[in-house]
Amino acid sequence: MINAATISDLARYALLREVSLSPKPGLVDRYNNGAHTDMDYALFLLSIDAISPFFKLFYEQGSVTANLSPPLALQALRKTGIACEQAMFKATGGVNTHKGAVFALGLLCGAAGRLTAKHHTVNVATLCAEVSAICHNLTEKDLGQAKRNNTLTAGEKIYLTYGLSGARGEAEGGFATVCRYALPAYTGALTQGMPADHAELISLLTLMSYNEDTNVISRAGLSGLKFVQQQAQKILFALKEEGDFDLRHQTEALNAAFTSQGISPGGSADLLSVMLFLYYIQVAFSKGEGASAERESVC
Ligand SMILES: CC(C)(COP(=O)(O)OP(=O)(O)OC[C@H]1O[C@@H](n2cnc3c(N)ncnc32)[C@H](O[C@H]2O[C@H](COP(=O)(O)OP(=O)(O)OP(=O)(O)O)[C@@H](O)[C@H]2O)[C@@H]1O)[C@@H](O)C(=O)NCCC(=O)NCCS
Ligand SMILES: Nc1ncnc2[nH]cnc12
């Protein structure tokens, strides 16, 4: 049975796996801080400790609002989400470590509570469909209003400038980039016998090759996004074509390139956490109970 404790545990583990994956290009990992001057691995661990208690609250919020309409359920979830963001900022001294991850995993935990309260099956497909239903029209509602705000967030500025919907669009679309590309890339790598961290890196590169990451755009413009997508595609292609391709070395070289240009694919890092969370649900669910997913040591 999937419950608040299991869901919270899996969400926290997904965040730990993401930040512990090393090396990563442009992102904080156990070896360096990538393109970030204001955060490191230790700060991410503090952030994870601060936000993880909220995953149970998101689940419970989704459960008690299960009979409300999706917009009213989202309204309730957002209150928890904002409280969670405030806890994150308190723990990090105002640094934005997991804003996108709070949004995405908060919605998924809320959706799990909502589905369970309605006695619906909880799996990857139903979770993503429920998030999409909860976030129906969110992009237009949120970002359509943005014109009238004077203090715009990165995502709002990018939507008004380029029409790209960022984290909101991913949620409203039921995490299609994760389900269509990143999760199959991950399970495919595991099936080929690759270790979990190798499969995670392939999944991250797959996300980077598709994702319209507003973080990248806010730091390096559309040309920076194109560069990220092309470099990720290049590595994935070489990995497929060259048997003894040195993925670690190529990732370290890409990290140096991103770091020198101030590029951080933070949005894709968040979607990697989403992918891992959904995979753990898939494993837990296929065992017919809330068993903890098979786990590799985090680092
Ligand atoms: C709904 C919001 C979360 C939207 O916030 P915002 O208006 O800012 O919209 P976005 O910029 O589109 O997204 C916010 C964060 O989401 C991540 N992200 C970006 N693109 C994508 C994407 N395509 N798919 C998924 N996720 C995406 C990204 O977060 C990550 O990067 C941040 C770290 O990088 P950094 O460059 O350091 O970030 P900054 O500090 O902003 O820049 P610097 O100053 O350092 O240069 C980190 O956040 C990662 O998580 C985007 O930043 C929000 O407005 C909202 O409504 N929140 C309320 C709570 C809520 O609704 N909860 C959900 C209900 S349960
Ligand atoms: N490991 C990471 N480094 C930088 N930004 C991130 N956002 C989410 N995970 C991140």
UniProtKB/TrEMBL annotation:
Pfam entry (one): CitG
Keyword Lyase attached: no
Its EC number(s): 2.4.2.52
Keywords associated with the record: ATP-binding, Glycosyltransferase, Nucleotide-binding, Transferase
GO MF terms, alphabetically ordered: glycosyltransferase activity; triphosphoribosyl-dephospho-CoA synthase activity
Catalytic activity annotation: 3'-dephospho-CoA + ATP = 2'-(5''-triphospho-alpha-D-ribosyl)-3'-dephospho-CoA + adenine
Lyase is among the record's keywords: no
Class of enzymatic activity (EC top level): transferase
InterPro entries: CitG (IPR002736), TriPribosyl-deP-CoA_syn_CitG (IPR017551)
PANTHER family in alphabetical order: 2-(5''-TRIPHOSPHORIBOSYL)-3'-DEPHOSPHOCOENZYME-A SYNTHASE, TRIPHOSPHORIBOSYL-DEPHOSPHO-COA SYNTHASE
UniProt xrefs under NCBIfam families: citrate_citG
Similarity annotation: Belongs to the CitG/MdcB family.
Name of the protein in its database record: Probable 2-(5''-triphosphoribosyl)-3'-dephosphocoenzyme-A synthase
Organism of provenance: Acetobacter thailandicus
Highest classification ranks of the organism: Bacteria, Pseudomonadati, Pseudomonadota, Alphaproteobacteria, Acetobacterales
Gene: citG
